[in-house]
């Protein structure tokens, strides 16, 4: 399967060459839109957003899982170090999070 516009195989190749930032927002939006359209078509009498957002969220979740697996991201979560809100607020107050433009 392809991402929207760029074949997954090409992205996988780019990842092997060091690309580390892959945008999949368009893929997610299109998957969610397709799920909403399908739901609306199959349930024309239902208009509660809580109903039609469920399949949209599931479509987004499924697409993200698929892309993460295709891009080799599984098992990487343990490498991410979280920071508490207090830590981040302290860094911000000390100017450590100030934007740097070179």
Write structural notes for this entry.
With 102 residues, the protein is an all-alpha fold. It has one domain. 57% of the residues lie in helices and 0% in strands. It has four helices and no strands. The chain has helices at residues 8-16, 25-42, 49-70, 85-93. Helix 2 (25-42) runs antiparallel to helix 3 (49-70). It is extended. The mean pLDDT is 91.
Summarize the amount of helix as a percent range. Answer: 55-70%
State the separation between the terminal residues, measured CA to CA.
39 Å
Output mean pLDDT.
Answer: 91
The helix tally amounts to: 4
* Estimated radius of gyration: 19 Å
Number of extended strands = 0
Range of strand content: under 5%
Number of domains: 1
The biggest beta sheet is recorded as: none
Apparent shape = extended
> Can you write the helix and strand succession as a string?
HHHH
Structural class: mainly alpha
Poorly predicted runs are: none
A few lines on this structure:
The chain is mostly helical. It contains 4 helices and no strands.
Task: Give the topology, please.
Elements: H1 8-16, H2 25-42, H3 49-70, H4 85-93
Task: State the main characteristics.
4 helices; single chain; mainly alpha; 102 residues
């Amino acid at each position: 399967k392809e991402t929207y516009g760029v074949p997954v195989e090409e992205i996988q190749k780019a990842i092997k060459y060091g690309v580390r930032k892959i945008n999949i927002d368009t893929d997610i939006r299109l998957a969610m839109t397709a799920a909403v359209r399908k739901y609306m078509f199959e349930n024309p009498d239902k208009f509660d957003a809580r109903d039609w957002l469920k399949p949209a969220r599931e479509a987004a979740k499924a697409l993200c899982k698929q892309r993460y697996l295709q891009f080799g991201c599984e098992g990487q979560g343990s490498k991410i170090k979280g920071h508490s809100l207090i830590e981040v607020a302290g860094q911000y107050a000390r100017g450590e999070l100030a934007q740097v433009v070179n």
